């Protein structure tokens, strides 16, 4: 197993934010080699199938208590597959928080549906009060995004969706290995999605997964990720089965699945390591007068890859970032960490130009021009739509917590932050 830290100096105190990459070792090499030596990189047939895709799906079905798990080739593919399984289309809206990744939007829009944005609260996830206010008869689904490794008010959001008879889709892309009171995230909604991209807690380089327990949702997810049909026990396409539609062939290869299966065996180790450093940083940074850590509904369930701290003003947050980065609290040139959250790119709703300008997916302007979406003609997405979120992220700083971060480095980061905060009058 490879766990060697990269060189950490006063120039760059934070290792790159690619958690699973630090644990790629002999186990992953051996698994990938088995697939290549068997000359069978496609999951459905080959000279000597190694069945790694099946093994990964079975691992997550058991871990999550789910009946269905469908591996796909990316987290974006997982979101699209879930939206299609949920039958999102023209005339529907999907409610999602304003703190997300751009793929959350594109999955809705490419299905012909309309995204409607919901406030976040100090958990940095969906505000259930604003969710309840915004549900309408047009709401087909709620996309609950477990951003930055931890959950928010899961129980209440589940209750709201059930009461309004709205499908709940969990986006667990950034929170694989996280839980709420011992129950894994991704096991609460009607559908759940995961990402195994290089930035995630475990990685296949690129990959994703959709999970479900309902028979029809699970079978629809399979059909949409495949050629539009389910498969029989022999693995053959079944055109007489319960689903007949149009698929997108977003299968995961056996090579990626082999890498991923070896990573699944290290998931708990990776998240436990990040969680320990995460808690150390929160404890130290919380000692700064006026600093407020992200509210964790279940600290023991945080998978640990991010620390989010909120300061009294946007000016203080900006100056702290500038001063601490100058002192070394930053990653190397290929990483992004210790930044003010307004600079977090397409994770912030108003940074998504195509959304703000309501760009369509084709020259006809769909979904915005679709007559069935006339109800959304006045929807706007520019900055100011979510004032509670705007205020929160303007005063907040995000730091990545890769498993290569050491206790000694965390102590040094805390020391630098406390020193810089004191110079700004926070003492």
How would you portray this structure in words?
There is one protein chain. The protein is of the alpha/beta class. The model is unreliable at 1-9 (pLDDT under 50). It folds into two domains: 26-265 and 346-382, Aspartate Aminotransferase, domain 2 (3-Layer(aba) Sandwich); 267-345 and 389-423, Aspartate Aminotransferase, domain 1 (Alpha-Beta Complex). It has helices spanning 26-37, 52-64, 75-85, 102-110, 128-134, 154-163, 215-225, 254-264, 267-285, 314-326, 353-356, 387-394, 407-423; strands spanning 68-72, 93-97, 114-118, 139-145, 167-171, 179-180, 183-184, 191-195, 208-212, 230-231, 237-238, 292-293, 306-310, 339-340, 396-400. Helix content is 34%, strand content 14%. The strands form four sheets. Strands 1-9-8-5-4-2-3 form a seven-stranded mixed beta sheet, sandwiched between helices. The protein has a four-stranded antiparallel beta sheet with strand order 12-13-15-14. The chain has a two-stranded antiparallel sheet with strand order 6-7. The two termini are 43 Å apart. The relative contact order is 0.17.
